[in-house]
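During the second half of the funding period, the structural biology subgroup turned its attention to how the target accommodates small molecules. The most pressing case was 2'-monophosphoadenosine-5'-diphosphate, which had performed well in the primary screen but for which no bound structure existed. We therefore specified the complex as follows and requested a full 3D prediction, including the ligand pose.
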Amino acid sequence: MPDLYAVFGNPIAHSKSPAIHASFAASTSQDMVYEARLAPLDGFAPAIAEFVAAGGKGANVTVPFKEDAFRLATRLSDRAARAGAVNTLAFADGEVFGDNTDGAGLVRDITLNLGYSLNGRRILLLGAGGASRGVIAPLLAEKPAALFIANRSAEKAVKLAEDFSDIAPVNGGSFADLAGKSFDLLINATSASLAGASLPLPPGLFAPGALAYDMMYGKGETPFLLQAREQGAARGADGLGMLVEQAAEAFFVWRAVRPQTAPVLADLRAKLAG
Ligand code: ATR
């Protein structure tokens, strides 16, 4: 019997995770299957319990269950504890281990795939929700020169910055507070584009050579990357690489094997464009 894994979400039908993990399993010769499971909105814990009883070895967790998974875990990695959310579960010996690979996925995409070192950079993180919280500690571990969190509701950004200020200086504020500042890397962790809204970014925000990174992705240039290019970003990248890298990091947690990500990313990119 191959080892059983699944991604849990609601909705889940369009998840790319089963295809990504099937590619990883094939390329590393791991005897495993990876399925997509729809959990009821109020029934995440029972769905996981049923999966574990059926022999499930590990799970990925996506919207809207990452906080449920955090609460369900009986042991947490440091990065999951910091994120307050779990996207990777591993089940062994009656224990539910919770990890969060989103931030590592982002950092690996930026540093390895894009070849952009974070050390000494001035970073602007846009948004103060769960997506933002999940990546802050891994970003700080790369020793940037500064990290500023800007959010529509400024008080959420200030609070979030305070939560991480024991690691390194982090500041938070409103979009208006960005006036007169410039950054080397701007990361969009807001969901503004889902509502068709653009962000009120003041002019002059992009330093020469700046990289704009959108944690969202889609067919063609995302609304944030279009806006960033128009406002002077030298480079842009969407979140497809982060998706693949967070999956590879989860695969490593479960199997202790690091799959090649480049072919999988190229394949997803081609499908998205087609
Ligand atoms: P996620 O888990 O994806 O981070 P979330 O916790 O709902 O989702 O957070 C969404 C983020 O997008 C928040 O930072 C939100 O700003 P507020 O805290 O002010 O709500 C941001 N966001 C959503 N719509 C936005 C918009 N139209 N303009 C600017 N920011 C927006």
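Two results from this model are relevant to the next phase. The pocket of 2'-monophosphoadenosine-5'-diphosphate is lined by residues 127-132, 151-153, 156, 189-192, 195, 197, 199 (CB under 6 Å). The longest strand covers residues 206-214.
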